[in-house]
Amino acid sequence: MGNALFYHLTRSTPERLLPLLLGKAMAAGWRVELRGRGAERLARLDEALWMGDGFLPHGLAGGAHDARQPVLLRDAEAPPAANAPTCLMAVDGADIVGDEAMQLERVCIIFDGNDPSAVERAREQWRSLTAQNVTAEYWSEAGGRWERKR
Predict the structure, then answer these.
(1) Strand partners, 114
(2) Which sign does the torsion angle of CA 17, 19, 21, 24 carry?
(3) Which CATH number fits domain 3-149: 1.10.1660.10, 3.40.1160.10, 3.40.50.10110, 3.10.25.10?
(4) To 5 degrees, how large is the angle CA 90–CA 121–CA 85?
(5) In this structure, which of 21, 29, 44, 115 has its CB flanked by the most CB atoms within 10 Å?
(6) Is the predicted pLDDT of residue 54 greater than 80, yes or no?
(7) With 80 as the cut, is the pLDDT of residue 64 above it?
């Protein structure tokens, strides 16, 4: 498919946005890999998903039932996700390559707009993915609600 959506956070956090995006992905019938950097960060995301509103079934990669998880949280340095994802959500600048994106229904790249290095990393990812024929969309919450920018 090759469709990447970039979410520029300026008012909220990944912990607030991810339940919304994950809920939509699950409603579409997609299995999701949530890719981050570092065990501590993934543990915080895991806790946020368990403690938030509603129930989002998920697990941390490395468990006995990884292949059955509708949402699998995986470190960018770990082996590929075992849950056969059709959607990939990346935080903290986790790597995504064009070939990988082309095989998925959707890729979501979530980055902190208040962190200059995160913004630059997102720009690098945009340039890399679009150079590999991945369609990219930019979404901003700067106006107080999510808007697609052209």
Answers:
(1) none
(2) negative
(3) 3.40.50.10110
(4) 20
(5) 21
(6) no
(7) yes
Rg of the Cα atoms in the chain? 14
Threshold 0.85, pTM exceeds? yes
Q: Is the per-residue pLDDT at 8 higher than 80?
A: yes
- How many C-alpha atoms does 131 have within 13 Å on its Cβ side? 7
13 closest CA partner among 123, 99, 127, 114:
114
Q: Could you tell me the residue ranges of all domains in the chain?
A: 3-149
Q: Residue 16 — left, alpha, or beta (φ > 0 → left; ψ -120 to 50 → alpha)?
A: alpha
Q: What is the mean pLDDT of residues 24-39?
A: 96
Sequence letter at residue 28: A
- The type of residue at 99 is D
Where residue 50 falls among pLDDT bands split at 50, 70, 90? confident
Three-state SS for 16? helix
**Token pair of 137, please?**
């969309």
Q: What is the largest CA-CA distance in the chain?
A: 43
